[in-house]
Amino acid sequence: MLDNIKHSIVLLQIAKNTAHPVNGLGLYQLVPGSSSHITAPLMAETVLPEGPVQQGVELGAECRENARRQSRTLGAPASLAVPDMSYSSSEGEEDFYDANDYPPTGSIASTPSGLKAFDSDGDNASNPIQIRQQLPPTGRKISGKPDNIEHIDDDSLYDDESDDNLEIDSNVSVIRHLLSQVKIGMDLTKVVLPTFILERRSLLEMYADYFAHPELFISIADAKTPRERMVQVVKWYLSSYHAGRKSAVAKKPYNPILGEIFKCHWNISDSSESLPSTDDVATVPDGPVGWCTRNQLVFVAEQVSHHPPISAFYAEHYNKRISFNAHVYTKSKFLGLSVCVYNIGQGVVSVLDHDEEYVVTFPNGYGRSILTVPWIELGGSIVISCRKTGYYSNIEFITKPFYGNKKHRVSAEVFGPEDKKPFLTINGEWNGLMEAKSNDKEIEEFVIDVNKLDIVKKQVRPISQQDDNESRKVWKDVTLGLRVNDIEKATAAKQNVEQRQRDEAKERKDNGTEWHTKLFHRGPEESWHYMKPLRQRLMTSNT
């Protein structure tokens, strides 16, 4: 045991010295084909941001996996931590950075192996429109250097939602760039990342994956008793995370710009052979997505603040009379051998026919093994509670222990209003198999294998019909560059997006005008609410 502890201390010292070179000992690059020769230190020309930095290694969730909750509170969860500054503080010329705008020179800035760029000698090297004309037509897989053709449908860039994995050499470049900028405990809000680590979609679009299994969500409203509805909420929640991670390698979605919006919907399958009723095909013109019908699950998200970064999103199914409203403030921190993303905020499932609200919180995300091949895991304690019925659930996303290979573990306990012991326990992997054991004859035991659940593809309006502030239209040229592995073009396109935002922020500042959200308004305790929720619209229509 003593030897293991000593070994762990040595590993931490190596990580610390890698992040903060002492006496010229820093990050070195191995010469290809050799295991012993090294070249000069690779030091990025990046200036650390000013301000106090927390020192030391934070005690993360991975050090507390076996600790169990000693007391369980009933009702709404405790007050959530919020940033010191106001959520409405979204101005400033330095707010609009998502990844590295000006990568350092040398091998750190070079295009990663496997991410081959176009021929930069031609006249069209910096023209995104001409690049798009070189892509294959809709329906063809884009890989390697595309053929020379005349047209490409922007929407085809999203047809294949699987994400290419970075090669090991690419990850090494990521680590060199990242470690040159950070210290242990440092807030990563202002730290820029290489463009090639970006995932090909906005964070707002990633939040839509909570509803990749729409039938699980809307079936909450079909449950007959409060106990059954609580169990269904837990089943939907535990099944909602695996669809959001399409790549085995940890990547970062685009950081949404202020005022960015994403809209989509899902078609609900009908097992009956009867023709759809008039009520099913009727549209909801005053709904979040006005061209959708009453039998479709619709989703809308807005970036309501950029500094600090806060996203708000809302989903509803009109016929089932169920909705979900949430806001998430993301805060990142460097932990030495990993990166943690704290998801501060909450969501509320509203079952209107029963006047019930289920409040849920969100786990933290961790980028592990950043010195080798980064991978994602979730960690932290989650509470789901319904104040009206008194039912609640404690969920623990268990991070990988220091010793052992068990990853992505999750455990859940579901309680009734007067229960001292859970009437249902669920254990397994949130991205795999989860098994439920029941102590109640009314609740049947079940098994959830998320890999066998059909992921219903979200339907998004063609980019040509989208408004200028909708996610896929905002980032289409960045997505194009990443999709064809042209990192320089993706970086240039990203710079254009961010510079446009800086110019608009400066114009508002010069004119003395403030930014106003379009779809969400700020509520008490720094929460955000959709302006025209289903409950409000139904009440108005009945008066």
Automatic annotation (TrEMBL):
Pfam families: Oxysterol_BP. Signal peptide: none annotated. Residues 123-136 have a biased composition (Polar residues). The keyword Transport applies. SUPFAM superfamilies: Oxysterol-binding protein-like (SSF144000). Belongs to the OSBP family. This is Oxysterol-binding protein. The lineage of its organism: Eukaryota, Metazoa, Ecdysozoa, Arthropoda, Hexapoda.
